[in-house]
Specification:
heterodimer, A: 5 helices, B: 1188 residues, 50 helices, cytoplasm (chain A), protein transport (chain A), golgi apparatus (chain A), Coatomer_zeta (chain A), AP_mu_sigma_su (chain A)
């Protein structure tokens, strides 16, 4: 299950988050844990450099594009490599929506579209679509194949 | 740290171009964008009502969409809600849609939940709007509304807290009505259901979106569930056999997709996607049928969902799934086609499904089908995606989920090392090279008709390849990757490789490997059988030998060595998580027969890095546990590694886990390894004591991290205590097992010769005593106390000459001469060591008195014996009574210091046994019950259960592991967190949130065990002695009571004094509470752990005990009344999986409920509630594996 997808800016402010199957009381811990990873690793990270972490049987994969750090947390079938698929889908869609590596402002401007993309990529804790063209079509309510 | 979630989102809410004088809310939108070089502004603004109102009033009204200037742009939740309400009713749909899509919906998405008061507007838009963007947002919000209604207010999405009170208030003022979630959800479901049933082809995108949103509805409602099933099966009935997309030639020769087939494909995808989210209906053939049909879906994501459902179904109803998939597979080969699908997770689920089906017994009669599944699984090893390849490797290795058995894992290793992949005959088209031609779309796997370029030459048929060779190449290639997740994944797979190999070694008797027979051409089915046959040979006792690379042929050992080298290089990765995974992999790949220095060097190097999080270090410790469980013969190696953690990062590791490792390794190392195991534990003692501040040039310099120093000291204390408690077990030396008197000749030797004689008789015990002696002299004060207590424990439990050796040592120590005599040169750590030089005189005094009493008693007994022999007198009843009184008094005394089996322990020497038994028999005294001393009755003896007398099992192999009730609260009880952590780790669980570092330190650094053990016991003991107004330490230990009181004043007897007095208090106040609960409150004295199994009474013994109890005083009766309770069957729970090693033994699965019948030599005879897979319901299991 994909437990969490989190977007923060480089200073650690949470911009967007989606939790699945995590008790509310644990979310704060996860948030803190992820943001701490940001402060430790991402300040000097290159764009699209993918990082990995783990906690017990939970995997964390994260990256930074522009001013936005994106984290994916998963377990079971969503190990570090499956989470890379998730992350690739998310970053591709965010880049497409923002048309470039997003600044924080640009990301916020496109906030609604990003939410729709995320809704197509992750559905109830499971990866749904990874192809950005399919995601684009679905966010515009167009048929997948026509 | 995370600030207020969504603090920066204020920008979005206040997205109007702000006046220049308002720097907090800069303009947003196209007007002016910040340069990329400008660092992002810190937005830690808290959204307060005041701020919101100021925003409302201060933000100008201009919009970027050219809307009327008078109209305010929504900046607050109430504004957004109001705008949504207005725009949903607007006649100008086009303008309204623009506003909604650009202004309202994105801002509403910021909030953490969707307020039900928005639902009417959303439903109105759903009905009236034709704008696809608006509708998409509407479905998004409706789905969120439904999801939130099912989660009892738990919102899946984060963001700003939704101030629904604000919206409600404003809407009410405007004449709106308050709507609740319970009211709107049925309306939403009704509306979405109607749309999801709409079969109009042109509206099918909306139908799909509606179905998706509807699937978020709470499925706890049967109505919703049945509606969803109805819709999904309704769609699948029509389109499940859609097949592939049909293409047709369009204008200008361009191909286009046939609309009808596209429509069917889209609908099938949507239905399968919904089906996956619905609860699995494993008994429903229609469910299975549609899911299996979905494997042939034209949409790759649909295929993935179908495979996911089928793979999950296969774990529940293997037969039905096997037959259904086999039918499909034979008919059209759909599974082979999945290999070409551009969807990684689809292929992952394919690997899982093929693994499950390839092991299905139901397909034994259809080898061609089974081999097809196996072939596909093997082909997935060549998949271009690491995720798929690693999944296939895991499956081959028998790692499917956390529930696989050791047998599965062992079979996995056998399969990996023996199977050979015979590539399927390529069809007429040329096949791409597997290693080089792995295309992104995954359509270029072996044996798959490629869509590949035509300019390639037809490849020659590929030679069959040993599976292990393919796997090793792939892993080595992954280990050279620059991607951290790939590295992490690869080393995890190496770990799994090591686990399977360890299982094969443990179960099958494999040592390492054989030469791979590269020239054999064996089909996969035959390979599986081959593996099984070989496994059978191995079970019959054949043990394979290690063979290294031989003349041109590559051995498994050689390949493994190369792989391990790859993993070692991975430890250079800058990511600490990858390094941790690599170390775990190395621990699993470590052979018990190979030197461990290299691994130790790597770990030592890593531990020098202060950046390692404590959680990761403890994970590695847990890996050591798991490795020990898989390969007990590695106990010493693992202890050696654990020593690195104990010494280098004592402040970061979990002492519970470390101590549990010590215990399990000591028990598991077998008779031969006990000495080494004990030595490995006690190497901790060789560490220099924590150095306090040292003065260098007039300045204080901190030599070490104070926390680490304290933690190290605690570990040393633990090791000393452990040594004292377990030395006798490890050495196999117990005073009560000796049938002969102490050798007089030996006793006559002088000190040095006695030590030499002791060393030659039992080097393990002699070594332990020597170490304890050193600790009693040179350790810190806390360590010295424990060492003295450990020594007296060993003295009481050991026969001669060890007892006299310790007696002499303690005597010298008490007089303060030993320090100079023994070490002299040790540097002082600056503590005041008292007049004796060790500060232990007053602590040792009561210990010496106990030993004095024992020796005096023995002397007196020898005299009496001679007197009777010389006078040829029979022992009268009075003589026997005197003897028995002395025996009991001494027994009570020693019981205050450590556990000894009352029925067997003979403080007056083995020759007293006959006379003591004579007296007992004549007076029908229960050997285990002790005398009727109330202090003893309320103190120690109620730890003992009379039932154990007749069974001859009265002392535990390792006191800590015995788990008697008293022990539950002491060492074992304190180790319960450790046990739980190990179990959780073994099960692969643990998804709880990571704690903060600060809290982590609080949890792990102070040892719970030793806090309890030392702080509570020592301090409480002192307090209780004062409360009681006990006599001073110099009082004569003529009676048990006086000895007890005397001992409470000093550390030497602190345990027992505090223990006994607390017991008395508890006894008075909690007389009616259960024995168990009473024991749980007992102190952590070291003797308490030793009463393993005593509670497992046979009813016969209890009967006799109860009949005796009627003649005793009231406290005794109370205790016996407590023992009545113990007639009830004892229940326990399996802590770990256990594989039976013989007919008498019983397989266990962790967590299994057990009824414990009795204990024999560290084994419990247990009865399961229901027979296991092997049909056995009752048998022996190690005590260590059962918690009760």
């Amino acid at each position: 299950m994909i437990l969490c997808v989190l977007f923060t800016n480089r200073t650690g402010n949470v911009l967007l988050e989606r939790f699945h199957g995590l008790p509310a009381e644990e979310r704060l811990h996860w948030r803190s844990f992820l943001v701490k990873l940001t402060t430790e690793n991402l300040k000097t990270a290159r764009d699209d450099e993918v990082f990995v972490a783990s906690h017990k049987s939970v995997f964390i994969v994260y990256t930074v594009i522009g001013d936005i750090c994106i984290f994916a947390v998963g377990k079971e079938v969503y190990d570090e490599l499956a989470l890379m698929e998730v992350l690739n889908a998310v970053t591709a869609s965010v880049k497409e929506v923002c048309r470039k590596d997003p600044s924080e402002r640009l990301f916020l401007e496109k906030y609604g579209k990003v939410c729709l993309c995320l809704d197509e990529i992750i559905s109830q804790g499971a990866l749904e679509h990874t192809d950005k063209d399919r995601i684009r079509r679905l966010t515009r309510l167009k048929p997948l194949a026509e | 740290m995370a600030q207020e979630p969504g603090a920066s989102l204020m920008d979005l809410i206040t997205s109007d171009p702000a006046p220049s004088g308002n720097p907090t809310f800069p303009p947003l939108g196209k007007s002016e964008r910040p340069s990329k070089n400008v660092p992002p502004r810190k937005s830690n603004v808290q959204m307060t009502p005041e701020l919101l109102s100021s925003i409302k009033t201060s933000v100008p009204v201009k919009t970027s969409l050219g809307l009327p200037k008078q109209k305010k742009k929504p900046v607050s939740y109430s504004h957004l809600a109001r705008s949504l309400q207005e725009l949903s009713a607007s006649a100008d749909q086009k303008t309204a849609a623009k506003q909604l899509v650009h202004q309202v919906f994105p801002k509403l998405a910021v909030y953490s939940s969707v307020d039900p008061s928005l639902a009417p507007s959303l439903l109105a838009l759903h009905q009236s709007s034709e704008d696809r963007s608006v509708l998409r947002y509407v479905y998004y919000f409706l789905a969120r509304l439904l999801a939130e209604s099912g989660a009892q207010g738990v919102t899946p999405g984060g963001g700003l807290p939704t101030p629904n009170w604000d919206a409600l208030a404003d809407l009410n003022l405007a004449g709106g009505t308050v709507v609740t979630r319970a009211e709107v959800v049925p309306q939403i479901i009704t509306q979405l259901t109607a749309e999801a049933r709409n079969a109009e082809p042109l509206l099918h995108p909306r139908r799909i979106a509606a179905l998706k949103a509807l699937s978020f509805a709470p499925t706890t409602s049967n109505d919703v569930l049945s509606t969803l099933y109805e819709i999904v099966f309704g769609i699948l009935d029509k389109v499940a056999d859609a097949g592939k997309l049909r293409r047709k030639k369009g204008m200008f020769g361009r191909q286009s997709v046939d609309k009808e087939s596209a429509l069917r494909s889209n609908l099938q995808y949507a239905a399968l996607s919904t089906l996956r989210r619905l609860p699995l209906d494993s008994g429903n053939p229609a469910f299975l049928h549609r899911a299996v049909q979905g494997i042939a879906c034209a949409d790759p994501v649909g295929v993935r969902h179908a495979l996911s459902v089928v793979a999950e179904l296969a774990t529940k109803d293997l037969t039905a799934v096997a037959m259904a998939v086999a039918k499909l597979s034979l008919a059209g080969g759909s599974l082979q086609e999945v290999l070409q699908i551009h969807d990684v997770l689809a292929r992952v689920y394919l690997a899982r499904l093929c693994y499950i089906l390839s092991r299905a017994r139901v397909l034994d009669e259809r080898p061609e089908v089974k081999s097809q599944f196996t072939t596909i699984l093997y082909q997935l090893l060549l998949d271009p995606s690491e995720r798929v390849c690693f999944e296939a490797i895991s499956c081959v290795l028998g790692k499917f989920d956390a529930s696989e058995s050791l047998e599965d894992r062992a079979n996995g290793w056998v399969l990996l090392t023996t199977a050979i992949l015979k590539f399927p005959e390529p069809p007429s088209q040329p096949a791409k090279d597997a290693s080089g031609g792995a295309g992104k779309d995954g359509a270029t796997k072996e044996g798959i008709p490629p869509r590949g370029p035509k300019d390639r030459q037809a490849p020659r048929p590929r030679r069959p390849q040993p599976l292990i060779k393919l796997v090793m190449r792939r892993l080595e290639s992954a280990l050279r990757s620059s991607s951290r997740p790939v590295l992490h994944g690869a080393v995890r797979i190496v770990q799994e490789l090591g686990k399977s190999r360890a299982s094969a070694v443990a179960i099958r008797g494999y040592t390492v490997d054989d030469i791979v027979q590269q020239d054999d051409m064996v089909n996969p089915t035959a390979d599986i059988n081959k593996g099984d046959d070989e496994a059978g040979d191995s079970e019959s006792g054949h043990r394979r030998t290690v063979s290294m690379s031989v003349a041109g042929k590559e051995s498994i050992a050689g390949m493994l060595a190369s792989l391990i080298e790859g993993v070692r290089t991975t430890t250079a990765c800058e990511c600490v998580y990858v390094r941790a995974a690599a170390i775990k992999a190395l621990i699993w790949m470590q052979s018990p027969y190979e030197p461990v220095e290299e691994l130790k060097a790597i770990i030592t190097g890593e531990l020098a890095d202060p950046g390692w999080p404590a959680a990761l270090l403890n994970d590695i410790m847990l890996t050591l546990h798991a490795r020990f469980k898989a390969t007990p013969e590695m106990a010493v190696i693992l202890l050696d590694i654990s020593r690195l953690f104990a010494t280098k990062v004592p402040g970061k590791i979990d002492s519970d886990v470390l101590q549990l490792l010590w215990k399990t390794c000591l028990v598991g190392s077998g008779a031969d390894g006990k000495h080494n195991a004990l030595e490995a534990v006690t190497v901790v003692l060789d560490l220099p004591p924590p150095q306090p501040l040292q003065m260098v040039g007039g300045r204080a310099t901190d030599r070490a991290d104070p926390k680490s120093a304290i933690a190290l000291q605690r570990l040393v204390q633990a090791a000393v205590w452990f040594l004292g408690e377990n030395a006798n077990y490890a050495a196999g030396e117990y005073a009560w097992e000796s049938a002969t008197s102490p050798s007089t000749a030996l006793m006559m030797l002088d000190g040095d010769k006695m030590v030499a004689a002791a060393s030659s008789r039992n080097p393990t015990l002699a070594g332990a005593i020597t170490r304890l002696q050193r600790c009693a002299i040179s350790g810190s004060w806390e360590v010295r106390i424990i060492a003295a207590q450990a020594l007296v424990t060993v003295a009481i439990r050991s026969g001669e000459p060890y007892r006299i050796q310790i007696y002499e040592f303690l005597h010298t120590l008490a007089q303060g001469r030993t320090r100079e005599k023994v070490i002299g040169a040790e540097a002082t750590n600056g503590e005041d060591q008292g007049a004796s030089g060790t500060g232990l005189s007053s602590i040792i005094a009561p210990m010496l008195r106990v030993l004095d009493e024992m020796y005096k008693g023995q002397d007196q007994f020898v005299k009496d014996m001679r007197q009777h022999d010389n006078a040829k007198q029979e022992w009268t009843d009075d003589d026997l009574k005197r003897l028995y009184d002395t025996h009991e008094r001494l027994l009570d005394l020693v019981s205050l210091y450590c556990f000894v089996p009352r029925s067997k322990y003979l403080p007056l020497g083995p020759t007293s046994a006959k006379l003591i038994n004579l007296y007992r028999n004549e007076h029908r005294i229960d050997a285990n019950a002790g005398y009727n001393d109330p202090a003893v009755a309320t103190g120690i003896s109620d730890l003992l259960d009379g039932a154990r007398v007749g069974r001859g099992v009265e002392y535990p192999p390792v006191n800590m592991d015995t788990g008697d009730e008293g022990n539950v609260t002491s060492e074992w009880g304190n180790n319960q967190p450790g046990v739980e952590r190990v179990n959780a780790f073994m099960k692969g669980g643990g998804t709880d949130a990571p704690g903060d570092d600060s809290s982590e330190e609080e949890e792990t650094r102070p040892s719970v065990s030793y806090d309890d053990m030392w702080a509570k016991t020592l301090l409480d003991g002192s307090d209780s002695s004062e409360d009681e107004g006990g006599s001073s330490g110099s009082s004569s230990p003529d009676s048990a009571a006086s000895s007890r009181h005397g001992s409470t004043r000093f550390a030497g007897g602190l345990f027992t004094g505090g223990h006994a007095s607390r017991r008395e208090d508890e006894h008075k106040t909690h007389r009616h509470s259960s024995v168990t609960s009473g024991m749980r409150d007992m102190s952590t004295k070291s003797e308490s752990p030793k009463t393993s199994g005593r509670k497992f009474a046979t009813s016969a013994r209890n009967d006799s005990m109860n009949s005796d109890s009627t003649t005793r005083d009231s406290p005794r009766m109370s205790v016996d009344a407590g023992s009545d309770d113990r007639q009830e069957p004892q229940f326990g729970k399996a802590l770990y999986d256990f594989t039976a090693g013989g007919d008498e033994e019983l397989n266990l699965t962790a967590g299994e409920e057990l009824e414990i019948e009795y204990e024999v030599d560290g084994w419990f005879s247990v009865r399961k509630k229901r027979p296991g897979r092997d049909g056995k319901i009752q048998g022996l299991v190690p005590v260590l594996y059962v918690s009760y």
